[in-house]
Amino acid sequence: MLQKALEQIDRYPEWRQQSIDIRSELSESIRKLENKIDRMNGSIGDLKKSSSEGMAYTWRYRILRFDDEIRHDEKHTKEHFDQIMDDITKYELYCASHPDFPNNKAVFAIKNIKRVYQKCTDERIFL
Asked: What's the rounded Cα separation, in Å, for the pair 59 and 81?
């Protein structure tokens, strides 16, 4: 039994080096994972920005189209107006929180839609 203990003591430097090597490899793997996660977080942030900006363009497109329809005397239901008013709210909130987003294209369209909506509400002339 003493001989077995002495053999294990003799092998201790080898085992210790193995342990050091494993810890070193593990630390390197963790560092690589952290770098990948950092890059992914950057990509996810870019994706979220791109997605929300894409929605803003979609809201603006629908607002401009709806305004164009109004200007061509197309009639709309109250539900259509309610939907576009929701789009306007979301679009205006987006523009308020993203001041560098180009908004000048929709300002007058929004003003006109709100004016017509108010008129339709007052006169009860929805389709």
From this structure: 14
Map out the domains of the chain as residue ranges. 20-123
pTM of the model: 0.60
CB atoms within 10 A of CB 70: 20
**Burial, 60: exposed, middle or buried (Cβ in 10 Å; 0-12, 13-18, 19+)?**
buried
Confidence of residue 62 (pLDDT cuts 50, 70, 90): very high
For 11-22, letters b (16+ CB in 10 Å) and e give eeeeeeeeeeee
**For residues 52-68, average pLDDT:** 90
Contact 118, 78 (CB under 8 A): no
Structure tokens belonging to residue 70: 């109004």
